[in-house]
Amino acid sequence: MKIDKRQMKSTSRLYAVQALFQMEVSGQTVEAVTAEFETHRFGAVYEEGEFAEGDVAHFRAVVGAAVNWQAKIDQLTDKALVAAWPIDRIDPVLRALFRAAGAELVDMVTPPKVAITEYVDVAKAFFPDGKEPKFVNAVLDHIARDARPEAFQTP
Questions:
Q1: What is the CATH number of the domain that holds 51?
Q2: Which of 22, 55, 116, 121 measures 20 to 30 Å from 95, CA to CA?
Q3: Residue 85: pLDDT over 80
Q4: Residue 144 maps to a domain
């Protein structure tokens, strides 16, 4: 299956969220999880079907930045959430999603609007019938404004 570079980055974002979730629930290291994803997900073909090809470099960058900047990302996320719901009380999939998106907003050159749109789409993949995508949009907008205020200033 051949896909374009933009779609490969989108797939990498989905895989990054899955990898961060897996690290949290299994206690595996970043090295073990990224190796597993690169070997068994990126373009792999199984009897049940085919996994989409992704941008391995982008996947590694997002996961690595999420791990390296986790304390700052979690702090920005906590600030964006209501006081009664700190990050450790939200759904672990959303926590992984905020960390992956936060990595792109804090440590990468991805334009905030692109990162927010991409991760809202990831939220739709995990929660197709819920209110979570709107929640993700609001939280990521808040994180982006805190992490990269210069991107939101009008000339």
A1: 1.10.940.10
A2: 55
A3: no
A4: yes
